[in-house]
Write a structure and sequence with these properties.
By secondary structure, the protein is mostly beta strands. The chain is about 5% helix and about 45% strand.
């Protein structure tokens, strides 16, 4: 019930600098569980923003009254990575020893924000649901931890896809839950949901 809402939420997105990425933002109004209405949208050219600084932007909503006030910072990623299984991080014994030293008890108060990190190896899925008329799916996998989100490539026409990717996330809250969702790519349409699993970090 507000025309001037304050969210104060922070989201982290990861992109590669050789791509020309646009950040698309939509504002929606929800009356109840069934009725939603688009209140406006705006677009930001990420490549046009100055790097390594916080940019304060007031963005007017296209074809609708109102604007969004946002703080956007473009900075090099730290602690987040995607790699192939064959070049898996932490495979080097020396690197594992450095990590053990970094997170040993005597160093635990050196940097209170550096809780640790989570490494996830996404190998494959088995017996997925067929989402296409051909009896196949075009599955990809999305991993979310807090407000961090990474995803695999799409394996086309396959109900038993193999991704063999390694994802590394920095941990900001030990009570976070890792959510792994499988979608079916559907061209320009929104992807179809194929399944989901949630793993609390405290259970690892």
């Amino acid at each position: 019930k507000s025309a001037n809402p304050q969210w104060r939420e922070q989201f982290d997105f990861h992109y590669f600098s050789d791509r020309k990425d646009m950040l698309d933002i939509e504002v929606w109004r929800k009356d109840n569980k069934k009725h939603e209405e688009l209140l406006g949208r705006c677009h930001i050219d990420i490549t046009a923003l100055p790097a390594k600084q916080t940019n304060c932007l007031e963005l007017p909503l296209e074809k609708h009254p109102g604007s969004l006030l946002m703080l956007i910072a473009v900075s090099p990623c730290t602690g987040v990575s995607i790699s192939d299984l064959c070049v898996c991080p932490l495979g080097d014994p020396n690197e594992r020893q450095q990590i053990s030293q970094r997170y040993c008890i005597k160093n635990s108060f050196r940097d209170m924000k550096d809780i640790g990190f989570l490494q996830v190896k996404v190998l494959k899925a088995v017996d997925l649901m067929a989402a296409d008329f051909s009896g196949k799916s075009d599955p990809f996998c999305v991993l979310e931890l807090g407000n961090d989100m990474l995803q695999t490539h799409t394996v086309y026409k396959n109900l038993n896809p193999e991704w063999n990717k390694v994802f590394t996330f920095p941990i900001k809250d030990i009570h976070d839950v890792l959510e792994v969702t499988v979608f079916d790519e559907d061209g320009d349409k929104p992807p179809d949901f194929l399944g989901k699993v949630a793993i609390p970090l405290l259970s690892v």
